[in-house]
Amino acid sequence: MNVCFLFIFVIFRLKSCFAKRVELDWNIEYVYGARDGSNYRRSIGVNGATPIPAVHVMQGDTLVLNVHNKLDVATSLHPHGIYNNGTNYFDGPDMVTECGIPPGESFTYEIDTTAQSGTFWIHGHTRHADVDGLRTPFIIHSNKPPVDYDEELLITLEDWFSQEFYVRMEYIDNHKNRDDKFSVNYATGLFNGYNANNTAPIKLCPGKRYRLRVISMAANNWSVFRISGHKMIVIEADGVRSMPLEVDELNLGPGQRNSVIVTTLNSTDSNYVFEFISTSSTVNLEENELPKSYKGVVEYKEDAPIKNIPEQSDKEPMWPDDMALQAADRQPWLPVDRSINLTITRYVDQFRVTFWSLGKTLYQPTIVPTLYTAMSMGKLASNESVYAPQTNAYVLRHLEVVEFVIYNPNRNDHTFHMHGHDFQVTEAGPCGNRSGGYPEVFYRKSGPWPIRRDTVQVRAFEYVRLRFRADNPGVWRFHCHIAPGHDYNGLAVILIEAPELLQKQQRIPDQMKEMCKKQ
């Protein structure tokens, strides 16, 4: 027998012995409660539960989600940060890769985890159901953790509005309400699923190393997280291992994740304070509603006094800027084959409703999923003019290295998420005419091994350069992850990647086509 064949056969057999299918039945349905502690309202949960329990698998497992839609509108799920290589149709965004699961219907998603491990999340991707609660952590545990630690803890940071998403957006979009403070409706911060002012203590034991997986599942707000008297060492950004970087705090935009190592102190004489700050550039900070600071207890011993550690007002806290993070696998800067400039443009119509565009035009969903167009148009699928203008489509050649230069000459911060890929974050700097009151933006450049991630911050009056290799044939969304007003009002593009290979390698399940016919 050929030695190479024997080696591959043994590896395959080992994988098949240890990997398994993790099967979950999810009834997506309306639930009622007051996640923020005060506003009892309808939200979206799974199997009657909200918040939805986290999903845990081992690398190499296949997650099988049997979804039954008990809502009165279509729904879909997106595994945020997962490549879905070879299964683009399981990616989830409605009218991009599917029509959504009709009310009363069922569908099964299969998510392969062979190529990835780390901290991810699963959320709704039809009608912004994630904003109303259809979101949960998705942890892929590595068979060989990147560093040694004793235990791990999962921390979710969220924002929560007192009305359902579409009730709120319809109210805001009514021009008669533009000056009504209710239209802003500042969100409440949630820590591990509930009002951050009422959260349970984080319980730690002395003399241990903890891995904290911190996920921003917020729809609108930025999240800062820190623990008094403790340093954090970043080891992961969006599912990508990083070289260790010591920081004082984490600063996460919507959709971003970090893993950090915290080494606990050797004494139980004192407890400490953790702080979660929730803020946004999309509302008027002069209202004194934001930023909101929430504090809780880091408990070494029940009833121990809390140690007061004064802040150093003359010291700027260190947080993991993407230019400071370096990839642990030491992948160097990718050589660029093609550069695409994407400018964030803000429009205000005669009714003072704000719309956004990225690049050519503002994105609007089509009546046929863009994936279906790419799969059915033969050689014409490589022609951008085949796709509806409102898809904002860019056709990418197989294996070309693409650089996106995102320009944000506006006063609003954004986070942009790329489906099907992670990307190198190589450079950032000032952009546009910064007005008074906004933080100054400085030019920064990555070191020799740029961090890769799937969600990047683009701050007010800033540009950012990203690089990625088009090695995953499919139709992928690249969009702002701020749902209210930004993604909702057009801030997205569609990447049509290697359509000629896509047509040869993948086949849309018949059930997905039937789901389109029922809507």
Written overview of the protein:
The chain is mainly β. The protein is built from six helices and 32 strands. It has helices at residues 3-18, 165-173, 370-376, 483-487, 499-505, 510-517, and strands spanning 21-33, 41-46, 55-58, 62-69, 77-80, 106-112, 118-124, 135-141, 151-160, 188-191, 194-195, 202-203, 209-216, 222-227, 232-237, 240-247, 249-252, 257-263, 272-279, 292-299, 338-348, 354-358, 393-396, 401-408, 414-418, 423-430, 444-445, 452-453, 455-458, 462-469, 474-480, 492-497. Strands 11-10-9-13-18-15-16 form a seven-stranded mixed beta sheet, with no helix packed on it. Strands 21, 22, 24, 26, 27, 28 and 30 form a seven-stranded mixed beta sheet that branches. A five-stranded mixed beta sheet has the order 12-20-19-14-17, with no helix packed on it. The longest helix has 16 residues, at 3-18.
Outline the low-pLDDT stretches: 1-16
Query: What is the terminal-to-terminal distance?
Result: 54 Å
Overall form? globular
Going across the biggest sheet, name each strand in turn.
11-10-9-13-18-15-16
Biggest sheet character: 7 strands, mixed
- Give Rg in angstroms: 23 Å
Strand content: 35-45%
Oligomer: single chain
Which structural class should the secondary elements be placed in?
mainly beta
Number of helices: 6
